[in-house]
UniProtKB/TrEMBL annotation:
Entry protein name: DYH8 protein
Annotated Dynein heavy chain coiled coil stalk domain residues: 2-174
GO cellular component: axonemal dynein complex
Source organism per UniProt: Rhabdornis inornatus
Gene field: Dnah8_0
Domain of life (superkingdom): Eukaryota
Pfam families: AAA_9, MT
Domain Dynein heavy chain ATP-binding dynein motor region: 203-263
Length: 265
């Protein structure tokens, strides 16, 4: 209830030299308390006059702070919602990028396979002529197989005792008979190549068999014929070859003048 008018009315008294607690105590102790109280109220009025606007401003600012806090909370909620949406979109983006990378990897693998296939096709394209010739050759071999086998079996069965010249003559006679009977056979038939491979011939040569056609034919007859061969071998080449070839098979060698043969004569 203190007003500015009341304070102005008190100012003349407050300005007096003897308006203080010490002087008042000399006059009357009860009045001294009242004097001190009036001074305190005037001082309080001056302080409160400065504080009230600050309080009002504080209340205003607190109201603004509350409003700002509400806006902040609302913005934070929106931010949380947007962050959630962003996380979902980021997850979708990551999944899409992963799928994209997988597709790129598949495409690259497919591209490599296509390049390899193209290179293979181009490389195999050059083999077309050879394959065509080989296919035709195989077809001819199938057609001529019966006649070729007939010549090979005739060679194994009947040409053993004869020399190279007579063996060739036998083949020519057999081919003539097959022509008359319209039995197909290969005109350029190589009996050695048909009956034995090069690796086996090479092994025979290492074992001591000569490399000429007659010796190789004899080796074929010895190994392929169903009957036991009789070797007429004045130079001893066949004997050396047989010993080396059968050395690891427990071969036993004897002669007609061995004691086991003589005891039965």
């Amino acid at each position: 209830s203190i007003t500015e008018e009341t304070v102005e009315l008190l100012e003349p008294y407050l300005d007096m030299e003897d308006y203080n607690l010490e002087t008042a105590k000399k006059v009357c102790g009860n009045v001294a308390g009242l004097c001190s109280w009036t001074q305190a109220m005037v001082y309080f009025y001056g302080i409160n006059k400065e504080v009230l606007p600050l309080k009002a401003n504080l209340a205003l600012q607190e109201g603004r702070l509350a409003a700002a806090q509400m806006e902040l909370n609302s913005a934070q909620n929106q931010l949380d919602e947007k962050q959630k949406e962003l996380d979902e979109v980021q997850a979708m983006y990551d999944a899409a990028m992963k799928e994209k990378q997988a597709l790129l990897d598949d495409a690259e693998a497919c591209r490599r396979k296509m390049n390899n296939a193209t290179a293979l096709i181009e490389g195999l394209g050059g083999e077309k002529l050879r394959w065509t010739a080989s296919s035709k050759n195989f077809q001819n071999q199938i057609i001529n197989l019966v006649g070729n086998v007939l010549l090979a079996t005739g060679f194994l069965s009947y040409s053993g005792p004869f020399n190279q010249e007579y063996r060739n003559l036998l083949l020519q006679l057999w081919k003539k008979e097959m022509d008359n009977s319209k039995i197909p056979y290969s005109k350029n038939l190589n009996l050695i190549g048909m009956l034995v491979d090069n690796a086996t011939v090479g092994e025979w040569n290492l074992q001591g068999l000569p490399n000429d056609d007659l010796s190789i034919q004899n080796g074929i007859i010895v190994t392929k014929a169903s009957r036991y061969p009789l070797l007429i071998d004045p130079q001893g080449q066949g004997k050396i070859w047989i010993k080396n070839k059968e050395k690891n098979n427990g071969l036993q060698v004897t002669a007609m003048n061995h004691k086991f043969f003589r005891s039965h004569i």
